[in-house]
Amino acid sequence: MAAGFTLEWHDKELLKKVNIIADAVAKKGAGLVLKDARRLVPVDSETLKKEIEVHRGKFRDGDWVVEAQGPGNYTKFYAKFVELGHYSSVYGKYKRSKGGGSLKGISPIHIPKKPYLRPALNKNKSRIQRMFRDAMK
Amino acid sequence: MNLLFTGIYNKLIANTADDLYVAVGGRFYLNHAPQNATLPFCIFSSISSVHEIDFGEEREDTLIQFDIFSENNSADEAGDILGYLKTLMDDCALTVTGWRHITFSRGNVYPNNDFSQVPPIHGYSVEYNVMIEKTK
User: Fold this and answer.
1) Number of domains making up chain A
2) Interface of B with A in 45-104 (CB under 8 A)
3) Residues of chain B whose pLDDT is less than 50?
4) Which residues does chain B have within 8 Å of residue A108's beta carbon, measured at their own beta carbons?
5) Is residue A3 part of a domain?
6) Mutate which of B29, B53, B69 to disrupt the A interface (most A C-beta within 10 Å)?
7) DSSP state of B95
8) Chain centroid to CA B66
9) How many angstroms separate the CA atoms of A33 and A35, rounded?
10) Is residue A7 situated within a structural domain?
11) Which domain range does residue A25 map to?
12) B17 φ, ψ (degrees, to nearest 5)
């Protein structure tokens, strides 16, 4: 007679628990990145600083996104230009003509980057990994 | 950091017949291109550097950004230069005095265009993750 042996594997229940823990840690980690990004961002009018925010990602399983993009078109491009740097004549004292016409006669220059999102993420990467490891113990 | 930049610069200029060198005319700049610099050119700079000490091993995990800018009605030139950069730098072997090179791996590539210029500026920003370890 074979010995009875039953293994019950409640994977859905376990995954649900893991997801809850992971989500909480991810949210906390995103908060750390947000804090450092706001500290690192160059501040002129504070517009960009105010528009760095954390929100839930679009994936069904959930993730958290630190984003420097407010509702307006201003930060949509500005945030990227500051983070990556760019090559343009639309800078500082140089203004476009009223009709939004050409920029002839103005020599474009390279505007160096002032990264704030990627250094914030890099600084906290190891810490967030440790947070996940500790939470799963 | 200067040693790492020197290592990268030496890699870029090592072979003047290299496609990348020829395409940008040897115009490689650290951090910032001078005003009125002739296009196309390539800029490299550090985004961030994390210092790690693990059981006596000292490592630097640095994120390097390469920017390519080209002034052209076609996007081909910038695209070609991007390809040459990838060919030369992806997983390359770097010589950094006093450090042992571990990895040089490509990360994100971002388009960095400005179509308000005439002719338009086509550009790319490319990230590389560089890991080096102090030689004992």
Assistant:
1) 1
2) 45, 47-48, 50, 52, 61, 63, 65, 67, 69
3) none
4) 114, 117, 121
5) no
6) B69
7) -
8) 4
9) 5
10) no
11) 12-93+108-135
12) -95, 0
Q: Model pTM?
A: 0.82
Distances in Å between the Cα of B124 and the Cα atoms of A3, A109, B48, B49, B79 are: 66, 16, 19, 22, 8
Contacts of residue A44, Cβ cutoff 8 Å, sequence gap at least 6: none
Identify the residue with better confidence: A126 or A137: A126
Whether A24 is in a domain gets the answer yes
Q: Write out chain A residues lying below 8 Å of B52, CB-based.
A: 126
ipTM of the complex: 0.81
What is the distance between the alpha carbons of residues B27 and B90, in angstroms, rounded to a whole number?
Answer: 20
Residue A90 DSSP symbol: -
Residue-number span of the structural domain to which B77 is assigned: 2-134
The per-residue b/e assignment along A19-35, b for 16 or more CB within 10 angstroms, e otherwise, is eeebeebbeebbebbbe
Residue A102 within any structural domain of the chain? no
Which two tokens mark B15? 């072979």
For the domain that residue B97 is a member of, what is the CATH number? 3.30.2000.30
Residues A77-105: tens digit of each pLDDT: 788 888 999 887 654 444 444 444 445 55
Contact B69 A80 (CB under 8 A): no
**How many independent structural domains does chain B possess?**
1
Please list every residue in chain B whose beta carbon sits closer than 8 Å to the beta carbon of residue A85: 43, 45, 65, 67, 112, 125
Half-sphere exposure of B81 (CA within 13 A, CB side): 31
